[in-house]
Amino acid sequence: MRARALVVGESLVDVVRAADGAESVHPGGSPLNVAYGLGRLGHDVSLLTRLGEDAHGRLLREHLAAGGVGLAPGAVDELPTSVARAQLDEQGRASYEFELRWRLPSVQAPDAVDVVHTGSIGAAVEPGSRQALALLRSCRERATTSYDPNVRPAFLGSPDRARVLVEEFVEAADVVKASDEDVAWLFPGEDPVDVARRWQRRGPALVVVTRGGEGAVGVGGAGTLRVPTPPTRVVDTVGAGDAFTAGLLHALAEHDLLGPSAVRRLRSLRLDVLEDVLRTAARVASITCSRAGANPPTRQELAAG
After folding, report:
1. What residues make up the domain containing 275?
2. What CATH code is carried by the domain that includes residue 48?
């Protein structure tokens, strides 16, 4: 099914330096990547963000248009486009430094929307994070709400401070996806699955924790389910988590589990359906890891395996 999605958060350019020193430039920002991933998978997507009227901003606008993603009004302003500098290690893992300029141009959601997603820096930096939280709360009666903390410690301060904000978003979301690294930073020493179960009891219908090469774990009303990571020749992991999120929302749409009428079905999600949803999301992420940058698959590429 084709879902109507609103994604809220930062857009930026990833300047990626490989372990051998080679440098490349890619569109980035977690919410932008999720929006682009959903667009590539055939959904009707609008991105509520900000970017500049500069070369990097033009690159992002062209990239989004190519993925079928529209910009919400007020997205382009006079400030420079934000930049993330990613350093890859020998295994293709990325560490980041940011030159961020973030503000939310508007907080009004379309009248007709099936899912509203936010997370990452856009849900961590004030005043935009509070606006994003208010928007998520206001949409919950008429859309499925989704959140990915995608923790960036440089923007969150201490874990004690960050936990308060993160769990406010968790309580406002129907679907939460986090990585095991997110959970380890927020709750040192705790089992990520225990945290997912605790979060699920606080309001979300579904909480998913990705575990890199160890696959993913989903916690829903019917219980807990684990799926493995598909065999993948990893080029890099840039955008892998965002691709998983896009794949997760795509798979839920395919099972008619997005939108206000789907809340009850989402809360009683059968384990066999949850397995298909998680395996689909993992395939989207694995395809993305098999090529450079945040380059998620199209619907046709996903169907081809």
Report:
1. 4-303
2. 3.40.1190.20
